[in-house]
Design a protein that fits this description.
Elements lengths: L16 H16 L6 H18 L6 H21 L18 H4 L3 H7 L3 H18 L4 H5 L3 E5 L5 H8 L4 E6 L2 H11 L8 E5 L12 E7 L8 H11 E12 L3 H13 L5 H10 L4 H12 L7 H10 L2 E6 L8 H6 L5 H5 L3 E8 L2
Parallel strand pairs: 1-2, 1-4, 2-3, 4-5
Antiparallel strand pairs: 5-7, 6-7
Length: 361
């Protein structure tokens, strides 16, 4: 299994040239530091550059000059490292085929992420956020999910599966390729009185282990943009849905400056093992919720598509009556774009794309 950060799919978004140039300088400076002992300073800079956006993007000023300044400051640090002999081939890159199995080295680390998640975040926060998001878009979640057999495609730890059952779903099938997350989800289900309506299974969204026309609804929450098999996932959703069944799909659209930030940080650190980055964050004391969030943005592969591309893909696979949910909780980027906050489109572009649509067979 490849444990290194995959190279990002090339973005189709037209970014500000000065921001692209600054980010490319940072990537190039990372590539100059080939010694493995440089991984520590490179991880430090990338993590802090990503967290930098939280304060910079909260301002009502143009974020682009700040973006250039932040990346150039980080590049200067890397250039100073490259000019010394302190990181000079004492720990060169591993020869081809000789890198250690980092997955085994830190086995169990992902299970620790789930175990550290408190029940109030797992059960209550996921439920309340989902309720607020749907109600802000004029949709009653109890009416939408109540009585339905729902596939949670890419359920992870199962926290949204639990929310769907709490809204009254007849049955929720949580499907994922992460055995540790599924094991944790099953243990969580035993804690609640609606746990008997939760069924967690191992399987891939590229080949869903369900019969055709077997579920009333598919819930896909921020998953298929990680698979690099976008349309195959959507075709599988269409296959397992009953006629007139519904799909809730959340993917990231063309994401403005935030997309550039993520892609360039992944590119800069593509040679650093993902488990090492996770271990580093763990020792920094990052809590379970933020640890998952940081790993998602710094190491997971992304395939960015525009609203027009996703709608076209849905229609080609038989979906119609496509409605986009344009509201969210205060921290959602789509909420900031919809409400017209200063420079929100520069920062987040189309932001989160969340759709409800129906298939007729």
């Amino acid at each position: 299994m490849n444990t290194f950060i995959p190279a990002p799919v090339k973005s189709k978004t037209a970014h500000d040239p000065s921001c692209v140039a600054a980010a490319d300088r940072f990537v190039a400076a990372n590539k100059e530091l080939s010694d493995r002992s440089s991984w520590a300073v490179r991880m430090q800079l990338s993590v802090n550059l990503f967290l930098w956006h939280l304060s910079a993007f909260s301002k009502d000023t143009d974020p682009r000059p700040l973006f250039v300044e932040a990346f150039d400051n980080a590049t200067k640090i890397l250039e100073i490292c490259a000019q010394t002999t302190l990181l000079n081939e004492n720990f060169p890159q591993y020869p081809e085929g000789e890198a250690p199995d980092f997955e085994k080295t830190v086995s169990g680390l992902f299970s620790d992420v789930w175990v550290d998640m408190s029940d109030d975040i797992y059960f209550d926060q996921s439920y309340e956020f989902t309720k607020e998001r749907f109600e802000k878009n004029g949709i009653d979640p109890y009416e939408l999910f109540g009585g339905k057999v729902i596939l949670d495609g890419g359920c992870g730890s199962g926290k949204f599966s639990a929310a769907l059952a709490r809204f009254g779903a007849k049955k929720v099938i949580g499907l994922d390729i992460g055995e540790m997350g599924l094991e944790f989800a099953r243990k969580q289900a035993a804690k609640v009185d609606y746990g008997d309506r939760l069924d967690f299974r191992f399987g891939s969204l590229l080949d869903i282990p369900l019969e055709e026309n077997s579920v009333d609804m598919v819930w896909s929450n921020g998953v298929i943009h990680h698979t690099l098999g976008y349309e195959k996932c959507i075709s599988e959703f269409a296959r397992v849905l009953k006629s007139n069944g519904m799909l809730f799909l959340y993917v990231n659209g063309s994401f403005g400056l935030f997309e550039l930030l993520q892609d360039k940080l992944r590119e800069a650190n593509s040679d650093i093992p993902r488990p090492l980055l996770q271990t580093y964050l763990k020792f920094l004391g990052v809590n379970s919720g933020r640890l998952y969030w940081l790993m998602d943005h710094l190491s997971a592969p992304y395939e960015w598509k525009s609203d027009a591309e996703v709608r076209d893909m849905l229609e080609r696979n038989g979906f119609s009556d496509i409605k986009q949910m344009l509201r969210g909780v205060a921290s959602d980027q789509i909420e900031q774009v919809t409400c017209g906050l200063p420079y929100a489109e520069v920062k987040y572009g189309e932001a989160q794309l969340k759709y409800l649509c129906r298939i007729v067979k």
